[in-house]
Amino acid sequence: MALWKKVTERDGIVLEEIEVEGSDFLAYRTTALLHNVNIDDITRLVYDAEYDEKKKIADDLMSQRTIQEYPPKFSDKHMSESHVCLARYSTPFGISNREFLAVKSLYKFESGIRLITVKSINMDSVPPDDDYVRGTSDCAITLIPVYEPSSSSCSTVKIVNVNHIDPKGYVPAFLINMFKERSMKTIENTRRIYIQN
Fold first, then answer.
1. At what angle do helices 173-194 and 39-48 cross, to 10 degrees?
2. How many Cβ atoms are within 10 Å of 105's Cβ, its own excluded?
3. pTM of the prediction?
4. If you average pLDDT over every residue of the chain, what do you get?
5. DSSP 147
6. Residue 113: per-residue pLDDT
7. What pLDDT does residue 78 have?
């Protein structure tokens, strides 16, 4: 049974990796605390921020567009909503840029916890673009409100991002290292831009 292995820690951001059965690529888990933030702002950023805002934390994002939206669903314990998104990312010179077609889903639980999942799909109406290599991504991002003792307000959010990407096509070793660094850099950018004054 594979176990998570710590890779590094920087400024309170912990990066771990784990082998995935049947895949040549590792999965990564990034964990950190975001202080002085609003959980609704972070949820919107991760789930459905516009391109200009998303670009602030993911500088390799070239474009994104919503393909299809689904109506919200409600249950006794949570509500959920989903949409299909096509996102394209730049890569270093000499390597084909990547695109990902995925269903993004948001679950809001009574406890205040938010779960965003990303699951790659295929759609006949959105075939791969010859100018890109279409990779696959399975991702789960959990946002957990952290309440201070004797306080009903919350300005700290624990973020846990588990991501398994198969970029497909030619993948040099240094590109794999970029995947590792990217998960940490995204959280660093989020802290820098979205922390409340």
1. 140
2. 18
3. 0.90
4. 90
5. P
6. 94
7. 82
pLDDT of 194 over the 80 cut:
no
Question: Cα separation of 66 and 87, whole Å?
Answer: 9
- Sign of the CA dihedral with 170 first, then 6, 44, and 143 last: positive
The CB density around residue 79, as the number of other CB atoms within 10 Å, is 13
CATH architecture of 5-194: 2-Layer Sandwich (3.30)
Q: Which residue has the higher pLDDT, 166 or 197?
A: 166
**Residue among 59, 8, 63, 24 at smallest CA distance from 171:** 24
Question: DSSP characters for 23-57?
Answer: -SS-EEEEEEEEES--HHHHHHHHHH--HHHHTTT
Q: Where are the domains of the chain?
A: 5-194
